[in-house]
Amino acid sequence: SRVTDMMSRHHLRGLFYIPITAERGTMRAAQIRELSQTFEVGAHTLGHVVLTRAHDRRAHEEIFGARKWLE
To answer: In the chain, how many H helices and how many E strands?
Structure first.
């Protein structure tokens, strides 16, 4: 992507939080693996929900489910 190319050229580090699904789409597994070769990648949520509006159980499932998926 243009952002990661620019960051690499300027020797900038970055952390990208990636949801499994999002309204505008998200990255494929191969893209995430490639991104993780240069930058740190973290789990966002399963469905890009607003966690402050989610019930505790749903928030827990979103956070820990995404972490498990990314690992």
So the answer is: 3, 2
Residues 42 and 61: their CA atoms lie apart, in Å, by 16
Q: pLDDT under 50 in the chain at which residues?
A: none
User: Given the DSSP bridges, would you call strands 15-18 and 40-43 parallel, antiparallel or unpaired?
Assistant: parallel
- d(Cα 22, Cα 47) in Å, to the nearest integer? 6
How far is residue 21's CA from residue 3's CA, in Å, rounded to a whole number? 21
**Of 3, 50, 47, 53, the residue nearest 23 (C-alpha):** 47
Tens of pLDDT, residues 47-63: 888 999 999 999 999 99
CB hemisphere CA count around 41 (13 angstroms): 20
